[in-house]
Amino acid sequence: MMRKVDIVRNVSIVRSVSIVRSVNIIRKRHMAAALLGAVLIVSMIPVRVLAKDRTGEGWRDKVEITAHRGDNTQAPENTMPAFKAAVENGADWIELDVTQTKDGVLVIFHDADLMRMTGKPDKIWDMSYEELSQINTASHWGPFFKDTRIPTLEEVLDYCKDKIKLNIEVKVNDHQTQDFIARLVGLIQDKGMAGQCMITSFDYHSLQAVKQLAPALETGFISSKAIEQPEAFTSADNFVLSIDLINPETVSRIHSLGKEVIAWTVNDAYSVDKCRKAGADNLITDKPRKIMED
């Protein structure tokens, strides 16, 4: 015969077991409901969003677009109209070339002479800025650009400040003054644009000079040849590589150093896809609007 105390204890145990079972049932129901809700939510997300990371589409949201010498499909290269077109069309960066006149003025021009742009054989370093400013370098574009002149770096900095970032390629030659790099860095700093500019060059010594003058100013080493030891280029914050050099292994190695890879020149779907698969960070293109739209 069970005592009253034992009966009470057994009843309590039964109740406890029942409560535990009830709690477990409720938990399972809640988990099932939550899982069902998650499935429903996922089912409403477009497939292209779910597949973004697998297909690499997410890369398109992060990669930056650099207008090569401005938007040179809309206006003559390395001119103010081309730079304005790049800004208006939404490019992230403008790539431009800086060199020096006979009297030391920093100007934006790619070639050593005027032949390709004007048909004249004159060298940039043999002309004063006053002489250079009289020449229309865009006559082959027609009458609309008849007043287009070679801009100074200062003009470009003034226009681009707070509008767009600048990849300033240093064109090195034997005719530049010894203070060429110092004047370039000084002008960028005077304009308060050190955080908006990157100095790039095929000449690594120029980047070393930049870092000695302004360690925080971003730099990029340009190369059309394979770089066997990117670790050795300590004065280069980034690497600007020919599209032929872009591959997953190279990009991954550079990324492991905490540096970015800028690809040039990216003008077609094949090159874009190559950069996507490799994970390049920035595309220099002659067709910024087309590349952004595709």
From TrEMBL:
Under InterPro entries, the record lists: GP_PDE_dom, PLC-like_Pdiesterase_TIM-brl
Q: Name one GO biological process term.
A: lipid metabolic process
Give one Pfam family.
GDPD
Gene Ontology molecular function: phosphoric diester hydrolase activity
Where would I find the GP-PDE domain in this sequence? 63-294
Listed name of the protein: Glycerophosphodiester phosphodiesterase
